[in-house]
Write a structure and sequence with these properties.
Layout: H1 3-27, E1 29-34, E2 38-43, E3 48-53, H2 63-93
Antiparallel strand pairs: 1-2, 2-3
């Protein structure tokens, strides 16, 4: 087997490992709680599973604060998903950013 075939086989193996790891990531829960008033749960596929709001925070004058807190919590969960995905890419390919395909 020549060197090119070996490299191709290795790249295919990495792609399979990466697909398997990303499938597992897609079902992993990422839970973020902010200020004790909002909790969001996202899956690794970036879908929002739930948003919980403390009933005490639902006063009319706190509407804007609750909305901002939800946005912050969702953005933090998305950042955690990105970090987990980056870690998977780096572990499998040995380099940041994956293989680029």
């Amino acid at each position: 087997m020549n060197q090119m075939q070996q490299m191709l086989m290795q790249a295919q193996r990495m792609q399979r490992e990466l697909a398997k790891a990303q499938a597992a990531l897609a079902t992993q829960e990422f839970k973020v709680s902010k200020a004790g008033i909002v909790e969001v749960v996202l899956l690794g596929d970036r879908s929002v599973q739930s948003i919980s709001i403390d009933p005490d925070a639902l006063e009319p004058d706190s509407k804007e604060m609750v909305e901002e807190t939800i946005v912050l919590a969702i953005n933090e969960a998305l950042a955690q998903i990105d970090e987990a995905n980056e870690k998977i890419q780096e572990e499998i390919t040995g380099q940041k950013g994956g293989l680029g395909f």
